[in-house]
Design brief:
- This protein has 664 residues and is α+β, with helices and mostly antiparallel strands.
- It has a domain of 73 residues.
- The chain is built from 13 helices and 36 strands.
- A seven-stranded mixed beta sheet has the order 11-12-13-14-24-23-25, with no helix packed on it. A five-stranded mixed beta sheet has the order 15-16-17-18-26. It has a four-stranded antiparallel beta sheet with strand order 2-36-35-34, with no helix packed on it.
- A hairpin with a 4-residue loop joins strand 16 and strand 17.
- It is globular and about 80 Å long.
- The two termini are 45 Å apart.
- InterPro entries: F-box-like_dom_sf (IPR036047), F-box_dom (IPR001810).
- It holds the Pfam family F-box.
- This is F-box domain-containing protein.
Length: 664
Amino acid sequence: MTLLTLPHELVECILLLLPAESVQTCRLVNRALNETIQSSTLLQYFQACEAAGVIDNPQSPLSYPERLEALKKREKAWRKLKPVFEMSISVNDQTASSQICRSTEGFFFLTDDNRKDLNCCHLTSFPQDNPRWTRIPGHGPALDWSGILVNFAAALHEHDLIVNFISSDIENQADMHSLDFVLLKFSTGEYHPLAHRPRIHVQRSLEAEPWVDSKIVGDNLALVVHSLDGTLSDRLFIFDWKTGRKLVQHEAAEDAYSTLDFVSPELLIVPNCALSHFEVWHLPPYQLNPKPPIQILSLQIPAVSPPNILSRFDCYGDPRLPSPFLHSMPYLSPRPFFSSPENSILITKLGTWSIRGHRTLYDLIIHRRALLDTIQTWTSPSLLQQQRYLPRWLANEVTVHQIADAEDGSFQFDAQSKLVSTVPLPRFSLRTRGPSSVSSGLSTNSSTSRCTFLRVPWAKWGPPISRWFQLDAETRDSWFGHSNGQRCTFSESSRCDWRKLIVSVADFNPHNFRRSAEMSRLRSGEGENNSSDGDDEGGNEEEAEEDEEDEEDEEDEEDEKDEEDEEDEEDEEDEEDEEDEEDEADEEDGEDEEDEEDEEDKEEFEILDHKGVFSEKVFMGLKCVVHRAPGVYDFGAVLMDEQRLFGMKLNDEGWKSVSVFYIG
């Protein structure tokens, strides 16, 4: 029995198990298979999902033809930056000076001026709906509480969870403040029923308003605490929010942390400004004998050239929705599809400052899937050669305390970690400030170990998977992180009127880039790709593309034929990268060949014109196509989510209104 003799429905099910490039191969080599693929809406839909970098929502009530039509309209609207409708959301006087302004999972959030409550607005998908603000008490159902709301984190689709971080005075302890977080059920405002303890203590310090950033995936809640006044060293905490158990507390250097993000449910990336690298932490799955999270890798960024210093190092990435949970999420939106977390981008903001007062700001874009592959490569036990030439002069000293629970007598583990040096450091101090705190209870046993990790230079990992944009460091908009899926938005002041902004969206979807580049070649008769710069050429290419949109209804399927060639190119690049890593560990007689291969690879990359800000050439190989919105806008900042662009309007008091452009 051959494949073609099977029933049509069974052939369709088999083809659904294949990757997109394999399906396209079947379509090209066999007429019967081509007819099956062309006649199957289900196959066409999942092919379109893979090309668009989205994942299907199994809980959507829409039929597959309706989902396919919605996806086609959505992709076309984002190419044109043509909104389906626009609306304006007013900001009341109580939230005008909000220090928190964020959109996540279909809601827009602002804090009250009194820093006690959180205000949210449900973002509609229909123009006839009237958006309204609702108030979430910062401490949930507690009626009498002191303190201020310093930040929040959310996992709405996954857990119907919102976490408020509260800083409050400590009674009978002058000038001391307690940082805690409260776990609330978002839909009701009550304490979350899955949380064993609704309020969890983080730390005590002299600082009334520390900087806090937090992310939630599964049962893990990770946060960094940055001391703005320098009274404490920066810290990383990881909790199991359901049990309230602290998995690890890590002491870093001063001025090290400001943000963090999950790149997978078990991998956490933390930018370290003091050491100019990304920390990669592994969170082991739950076990009966749990192991604490540990740092497994350090990925360095380009070295800053004196007299410049690195003054800002943040990262952001949406969506944070881990796809394995889609089938079991009771609070999932009925939308037909979501951006794939694995195929999304991370946006990193790097700011430098010199003693002459000169400031620069860059967006560094990294593809998440490529970053995961990079982490896997550099932590693979098979690459033993890497230990011969990469530095290991930093380590984390981890002390695990076994603590008896005062209530039921059970034992828990509290891990304390701190950064140490394995060699003397005359020019840099790893000094930490403030006491380390162990969870309450009687510590009966403790053990200490030292965990080293590789520090991989930027040139060894960064260029193939990254792209840089230089931003205007003086605009308010440049200090926001705004990306979702494989798109990010940025703005620049208009040359005609510096008070207004030109808005652009960069699309890092390789399928969309290939199509745009192919159309450019067809129009110009040349083989040059000039759409990836983020300059006017990218915008002009998009304008020409829009003129031919009506002739492209079936182009998605045809363009996917090119994916085989792209995959082959990616495989060749991966093989070249692995060869580079292996050759560098060989003896001197092989180093010349490796240098030649590096030079050949670099010829395919673009070079960032950083004007001496960095002490090395900065190569970039990640491609994108840039779409520019028509006209200029009177916005103070531009944000985005998976379906919308937001224009934040300002007045003398602060936030005035939010212009919402629903694209789809």
